[in-house]
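pasting for ref
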Amino acid sequence: MKLPLIIGHRGASAVAPENTIAAFEAAVAAGADGIEFDVRLSRDRVPVIIHDASLRRIGGVKRRVADMTFNELNQVDVGSWFDRDRFSAQRVPSLAQLLELFQSNKLLMYLEMKCKRRELAHLAEACCRVVEEYRLRDRVIFECLEPEAVRDIDPTLRTAALFRPPSSFILKRAIAAAAPEIALHHRLTSNRIVEQALVANLKVVTWTVDDPAWVKRAQITGIYALITNNPAALIAARDV
């Protein structure tokens, strides 16, 4: 296994519309070690893959994801904003559809849960249920600000404590959450934090970086994985 692992941010979102099947297939084709994606609940409690709380930016629809059923979401074109000629057929996929697709490979999946705190338990439960259904618990890493929500359901599931700037007491919070990985925004990924994390036996995942220079930095400091919009570019830098 070559390090750092290269993880496609919302798939290969530099070359295909984010969080779509096309983007995930592009990441696989590029040779990524895994993908990162965002999950919310539809109105009928289906875990769906989308970053924003509404369809306005990527679908041109002024409606909230939480107010739409999965069938309604599945009617919205979420690819034309990126390239109408190539991606107008892309729709909001369900978590189940992604896991079905990824049963044919061995890539990692960093699942970021997107919701308000009061909704986290419901989202975590729904996501855990689908992951168990597809028997992919060994390949899915649940990534969120409060990984305890997943560990309360099943402490054997893989988790990563997510941190955005500004943040403090990073290592203490990660250890308290019993998360074996920490997912750090690139502005938080200092050499000192990485060194301290390694001493604490925590793997460091850094997001979101597109400069290939991060590959050399990761190899020198011991960063475990880089989440990037352009996995092909970082893989090329790593595999020279």
